[in-house]
Amino acid sequence: MASVQDSVREHAVVRELVAFLRREGYRVRLEVPNMGQSADLVATRGRWAMFVEAKVADWRRALEQCRAHQQVADFVCVAIATLTPSASLLGEATRLGYGVIHCEPDSLRCRWALRPRLNKRVWPPQRRQWAKAIRAVSYAH
Question: With a cut of 70, which residues of the chain have pLDDT below it?
């Protein structure tokens, strides 16, 4: 169970992620519904959609959440606010084709620790259904 402090920190991480992804040229939406759950962020650029799960510590939980996004996301990422991304996280992310965005815990500056690979597990009917629904979700301010 996440503490109130972790929830506050995660909110700050998400705020910095929005700024980071905007600088990378993405349009960003927060808490985007997908198959009965929601993604912390969905960043879109052109026709590409990247789903991001943000955590201040529990990267294994983020990987679990990412599995549901594989059916609709072109790219899947975990954002983690730890001193350094663990070798275990980087290994699992590499194996799954996920990206890792590292956010420094003090400054919350974000950088790519691992770029994601194009997801080949997208299910076109589910993607089309999701694409219709996403139009109703507003962009982050």
Answer: 1-8, 140-141
CA distance 90 to 18: 22
Class of the CATH domain delimited by 4-127: alpha beta
Reduced 3-state DSSP string for 17-38 = HHHHHHHCCCEEEEEEEECCEE
**What per-residue confidence (pLDDT) applies to 108?**
82
| Residue 86, token pair as written in the block | 């663990």
Dist. CA 123–CA 87, nearest whole Å: 30
Q: Which amino acid is at 118?
A: L
Torsion of CA 26, 30, 32, 38, to 10 degrees: 130
Q: Please give the helix or strand (H or E) that residue 62 lies within, else none.
A: helix 59-69
Please report, for the chain, the start and end positions of each structural domain, with discontinuous segments joined by +.
4-127
Q: Are the C-beta atoms of residues 78 and 99 closer than 8 Å to each other? A: yes
